[in-house]
Amino acid sequence: MLRLDDIDLIYNAGRVDEVVALRSLSVTFERGQFVTVVGTNGAGKSSLIQTISGAARPTRGRVHLDGRDVTRLPDHRRAGWIARVFDDPRAGTAPELSIEDNLALAMARGRRRGLRFAVTARRRAVMREHVAGLGLGLENRLADRVGLLSAGQRQSLTMVMAALSAPSVLLLDEHLAALDPGTTATVLALTTELVRELGATTVMVTHNMDHALALGDRLLVMSRGRVIADYDGTEKSEMTVGGLIDRITGAGDALSDRSALIEKVAS
Amino acid sequence: MIQVLLDMLVTGLPLVPVFLGIYTVFRLRADFDLTVEGSFVTGGAVCALTLVHGWPSWLALLAGTAGAAAAGAVTALIHLLLRVPVLLAGLVMSIGLFSVNLHVLDTPTLSLGTQGTLFSGFGSLSGRQADLATSGVMAGVVAVVLVAFGLFLRTELGLALRATGVNARMARSQGVNDRRLTVLALVLANGLAGLGASLSVQYQGYADVNMGAGTFVAGVGAVLLGELFVRPSGSKLLRIVGCVLVGTLAYRLVLVGALRVGLPAGDLRGVTALTLLVAIAAERYLGALGGLARTLAHTTRSASAAVRQEAA
């Protein structure tokens, strides 16, 4: 179970250029839950991801993972439990390194790195098996530089890397945003398959309302650093894209609109 | 001609570990560490001092390595504690180390005499044979260093080090502590500089407080030169050590050649700078040609692979 407790995330606190990224945010994600998150730019979606991953440390509040307080652990210390796929396909892999080196890096996640060889015959067999599942033929190109791969291939590889160490939380930060429509479909299919296989608590940020509604079993709508709507499976299945967009734009206008929104949700 | 090659080996081989260290920071970490200008001397000075105090030559070699590595650790501390770039931390260190080195040596130039170095056994040999024996011993040390370094890069720790230089955010998200690796890289790079300096000091028979000046630029020049010939990349480890070896020797060959042609020693820095410029220019303008050739080679390879697959 992943619990965010009364989180404030404020940049440049007390200065003129103060930015409130998250405000009194409290959310609990049940184990194995697949949650999609939508909201306008600046709503706090990426800040939510960063707070969970440890890339940003909250100004106030606690982050609990499976009963442990991880608030003070930096991102690399949480990497054993929390895997992350970035929005930029180039961000999740090291382009200068070979496919197998990238995978080996992910395989050692959450363990102490020592003087064992990173790529061994046994590990290579495991890699081949995982990568073969993608159906991209990458299993025969393990020694190739990742920089030679297309954006979609790289994002697929990042997904495989995320899954390699069986994380308990999977964070997908608009991981489909930079892909062309065809590739999006492929990586999307891979996403649903992977989430089902891993059984990890999954938080997926997206700009695509169709994806937000079609995937997962819970939907969060964020605005100005808060969660303004929280739909469970049945509510979500009755929601339409139009309705969802109305709620998001409505919330962005003025504070008073938010209460109207909550009434709407309740009705 | 043979003498030119021998000169290249005896003056160039000690620089191989030094430039390997520079490669580690400059290419693997994509950063600049100027500490090496001072730590090179620190390594040489500690080696000379311990030799004068009667330590065995191998131990003095290790002492020099450790001394320079300590300087790297201080640079890393400055970088992490004061949150300044490695470039600035190294610059401060390279200046400050001058005084430290002078205190260690206690004189601008410390002479070793003829006894007790790795190479003093060769004194009785003729000039050329002594050079041959000297370069043999150096080649042995350098080979051990290169193999050990290559193997280290293949380990999980070495892989993490390579990844942090290419994509630090990704490395962190994969659980790599890049602060720790910064320390490791700086300690390793400067330790290697100290090792090379110790070899150099034992060969020359003296340590000089100014012997480190220009090391960094020379190293970068040698790395660029090596990259022209060998084309290393993050996962091609043989090419990484090969690039440093070839680059260092090519760089020394240019300098030794310049001396042979009759240029005064004072012009050597100018030659170093020119070598650096030529290497950069060649990379810029020949790089396009090389890239084309590589693309062609790659297409041919994948085409033939496709043909093979169809045949199967």
Secondary structure category of chain B: mainly alpha
Percent helix of chain A, as a range, is: 25-40%
Give the overall shape of chain B, derived from the CA principal axes: globular
Low-confidence stretches of chain B: none
Please report the two chains with the greatest interface, counting residues with C-beta closer than 8 angstroms to the partner's C-beta: A-B, 38 and 25 residues
Q: In the residues of chain B, how many domains can be counted?
A: 1
- Topology order of chain B in helix (H) and strand (E) letters: HHHHHEHHHHEHHH
Instruction: Profile the largest sheet of chain B.
Output: 2 strands, antiparallel
Computed structural class of chain A: alpha/beta
CATH superfamily of chain A: P-loop containing nucleotide triphosphate hydrolases
The helicity of chain B comes to over 70%
Q: Enumerate the strands of the largest sheet of chain A in spatial order, edge to edge or round the barrel.
A: 6-7-8-3-9-10
Q: Give the termini distance of chain A in whole angstroms.
A: 30 Å
**What is the 3D shape of chain A?**
globular
Tell me the name of the CATH class of chain B.
Mainly Alpha
Query: How far apart are the first and last residues' alpha carbons of chain B, in Å?
Result: 53 Å
At CATH level 3, the topology of chain B is: ABC transporter involved in vitamin B12 uptake, BtuC
Sheet having the most strands of chain A: 6 strands, mixed
Pick out its properties:
heterodimer, A: 267 residues, alpha/beta, Rossmann fold, six-stranded mixed β-sheet, four-stranded antiparallel β-sheet, B: 312 residues, mainly alpha, ABC transporter involved in vitamin B12 uptake, BtuC, 12 helices, nucleotide-binding (chain A)
